[in-house]
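Before the break, one more example. Copy the sequence into your notebook; we will annotate it together after we see the structure.
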Amino acid sequence: MFDPRVSKLAEVLVQYSVGVRPNDKVFIQGGPTAIPLIKAVVVETLRAGGHPYTRMSVPDLDELVYRYASDAQLRHVPEPTRLIYETYDVMITFWSSDNTKSLTNVPPEKLVLSSQAAKDVSRTFMQRMATQDLRWVGTLYPTAAYAQDAEMGLHEYEDFVYSACLPDLQDPVSVWRKLSTWQQKLVDWLDGKKELRVEGPDVDLRMKIAGRTFKNCDGKNNMPDGEIFTGPVEDSVEGHVRFSYPTVFQGRKLTGVELGFKKGRVVQAKADAGDEFLQKTLDVDTGARSVGEFAVGTNKGITRATGHTLFDEKINGSFHMALGAGMPETVSRNESAIHWDMVCDLMQGGRIYVDDTLIYESGQFLIAK
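Here is what the structure looks like once it is written out:
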């Protein structure tokens, strides 16, 4: 049975998120489970005058690559991939895994090799996004695997996903524009500020934000969206944090991650589960131990963690930090092969101060109301 929410989401992605224009070269990638949405996006791209190119991922192929590839093969980046990242106007990515645990037993050092090999492509991607030379959006297509991670039935999870992406099924874009207007007030207030402090039951962090830009995330790069973020001054982060929610990176689920910072770098790190992977990933390169992003989630439609960062990092009443590469549009200078988001709850008495002014408490902004 056809789900009308699929075609509506395709419209939002093509018309609002990336704004496909005539003659745009549009790269569309996803797995076979997402074929209904891929087809709908191709149709919308053609209607907009773009030139779609679709690449289908093969389920569980990565597991075989990591099992049989040599180190040299893991370091190889195919030229067609470089060409797409360097020359295409638009990229639309669908996460549609049938097995979110397929890489669980891959040796961490093999994942590190792949991350290191992708560093130049990742840098190109971020730089082109910053200048809007490349318009990109990523979203999730609900699968049974994601539903299991979220501890939901598939139909319940579909409702969760589409409700977050299409907050008003008849006119979702108006909702995203309203959120954008409010978040822009926050971003404008933060412009020119110098220092930021986060306090709460599991966090005590300080960082400098002088000369950095906050960005308004309103459905243009992620769908769903709902956050404001910046890249803190690289050597300024001090303190500690224990992240409330599990974090999933490169197919690995870690719980109870705790980080301690000094002069902007992770100097202490441990995880209740997944510690070996954490330690090895922190040594991918020199930028992996620094913070590339600090963000506050604002999406009130996402009220619980589901095990997928796309949704968890947007939870209203949370903040997240990304180890590794920063976004050039924030003036972040941190470079790394990784960008690893981790989420912490602020609903139970968490506070954010900017230049000694309390701006946020227990999930509520006290400014720009």
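DSSP finds twelve helices and 20 strands in the chain. The radius of gyration is 20 Å. Try to locate both features in your own notes.
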